[in-house]
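Need tokens for this chain, all 222 residues.
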Amino acid sequence: MPAPTLYYFPMSPPARSVLLLIKELGLTVNLKEVNTFAGETRTEEFMRMNPEHTIPTLDDNGFYLGESRAILSYLIDAYRPGHTLYPNIPKEKALINRVLHHDLGSFYPKFFGTIGALFSGAATEISDEMKTNAEKAFNDLENYLIRNDYFAGENLTIADLSLLPAIASAVHCGLDLTKYKRLNAWYESCQQLKGYHDDQEASRQVGEFLRSKYPPGLEPLN
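Here are the structure tokens for all 222 residues:
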């Protein structure tokens, strides 16, 4: 059976989380870059695969799946069932899913949904509301690490892979992560991932892009 194809954009944190998994597991996946800025997710062909026209999108021999967190769990269940990154143990899987839901429903929209206006140029400064939302988003993550070294226990899981690209992007945009001690320690520990350095390069590009729109970057949040 042919290898699945991942449609991605190099700077997209959700897409990069899937790239981290692919590299960590050594999966054979065809990569197809899609330029979201050029409207390539809104073509008729792409919309047939993913009507929400989001990145990343997976095509596994005609099975189409959007949403990075769903793709992360699917790839393990389909190609590395029971792997420690998403073990087939109900309680451990529930803890991982809890973090994935928090990421999707709270952290990502609260943080990137707020500062996204800086990337688009719709906002020209960081407001007090943006600061409040960003601090709340990162304090919530800090609290997840009170009892564990990683977000869903004592080992790396797809919960960590889901969060790392967004946090790395924030750091390269100028956020001082050292004021969140547990989160900063977690961030340092993620260097063990096989795709860590590639993801750092993508984060650097995100930082450059933001500063081209808003030179201070995220330093006003510090």
